[in-house]
Design goal:
Length: 344
């Protein structure tokens, strides 16, 4: 439950001690001095229920999230900064004795934004404040560039990928339908997929590796066939890891009747996306300036007017192989930029 709180004044003791420690101020303090009221509780009121325990002030959590990003801090480090740092207490309007909050509150706040599809709320709110200060001009110039975002997954070869995908699907099924899985699983599966795949455990010769890949392929098709004939077929088929298993098998294997063939690298099914991990199926390989990376591309758009500061007005994350002109090809993306006064 949210009980909106006004921004309020900085406690006298907090202001006195902090200004004594930072007579010239710093960036964190200027957030409060220059943008008094960057966020307010009303900006996030729709994210909270009408009943329940009182929530921590969302304007403070939003500001902590912003300062955390500015200084590249973990949740624990950010929560400690709220407790220990004078400049943070100054920006947040907290008493010197304030003990802050548990670090888990920050991830809960981010989850709340994601669940409400309000991930851009912080940026949108800041842009509105910046516009009132003349930092973002209507119909001003803008430019867009991209940078890579590495996926938090292992970089696996093809054999490792199919083994780990089979293992991921079995683990997901074991949590949803353990009795059914036990009834259809072959004894060899428990030995083959019990532990995370490691290259040093795999066969070394090319012939042995291809034979092992075919065995894994047979296992995967047997599992998919069993799912098709299962009492809960629809529910099991729609499980995320099972869907990934099906796509990866379509790309890396060919089945004609009962015959399963491990495709050559040059013979992969190009109609199926090149999924690199069952744990992050949207991550893609991309190559730039001779370097190959696995993950995503984030496109940043900033204002670039000669008589005002450059301000990031839009952030768009796309699969790594999405080029710049495709990143903004949708009407939704262009409309969003126009709304933020970044396009003519």
């Amino acid at each position: 439950m949210l009980k909106p709180q006004p921004l309020g004044e900085i406690p006298v003791a907090t202001a006195r001690v902090t200004k004594a420690a930072f007579p010239k101020g710093n960036t964190i303090m200027r957030l409060r001095d220059e943008f008094d009221g960057l966020f307010s509780d009303e900006d996030f009121s729709d994210l909270y229920p009408d009943l329940g325990q009182p929530a921590l002030s969302p304007w403070r959590l939003a500001l902590v999230t912003l300062m955390q990003f500015m200084e590249n801090l973990t949740d624990r480090q950010a929560a400690n900064a709220v407790r220990l740092r004078l400049d943070w207490k100054y920006a947040l309007g907290l008493d010197l004795e304030d003990i802050g909050f548990d670090y888990s509150v920050l991830s809960e706040f981010r989850d709340r934004l994601i669940e409400a599809d309000a991930q851009e709320r912080l940026l949108d709110t800041m842009l509105e404040r910046f516009k009132t200060r003349g930092l973002v001009k209507e119909k001003g110039k803008q430019r867009t560039d991209s940078t890579h975002v590495l996926a938090n997954i292992r970089d696996m070869n093809r054999l490792e990928l199919v083994i780990e995908t089979m293992r991921a699907a079995l683990n997901e099924l074991a949590a949803i339908a353990p009795d059914w899985l036990q009834s259809i699983a072959e004894d060899s599966w428990f030995e083959r997929y019990a532990e995370r795949v490691e290259e040093y455990r795999l066969p070394k010769s090319q012939t042995a590796r291809e034979a092992y890949a075919k065995t894994v392929g047979d296992d995967g098709f047997k599992l998919l066939d069993a799912i098709t004939n299962a009492p809960l077929s629809t529910e099991l088929t729609n499980l995320p890891k099972v869907e990934v298993l099906r796509k990866i098998w379509e790309r890396h294997y060919e089945r004609k009747g009962k015959r399963v063939r491990w495709r050559d690298a040059k013979d992969l099914n190009k109609a199926i996306p090149n999924i690199a991990s069952p744990y992050d199926p949207k991550a893609r390989y991309s190559k730039k300036r001779g370097k190959t990376r696995l993950g995503y591309k984030t496109h940043f758009t900033e204002s670039c007017n000669e008589d005002s500061a450059n301000v990031i007005v839009n952030v768009l994350t796309k699969p790594a192989r999405c080029q710049l002109h495709r990143g903004y090809s949708s009407n939704f993306s262009r409309k969003k930029l126009k709304t933020r006064r970044a396009l003519c």
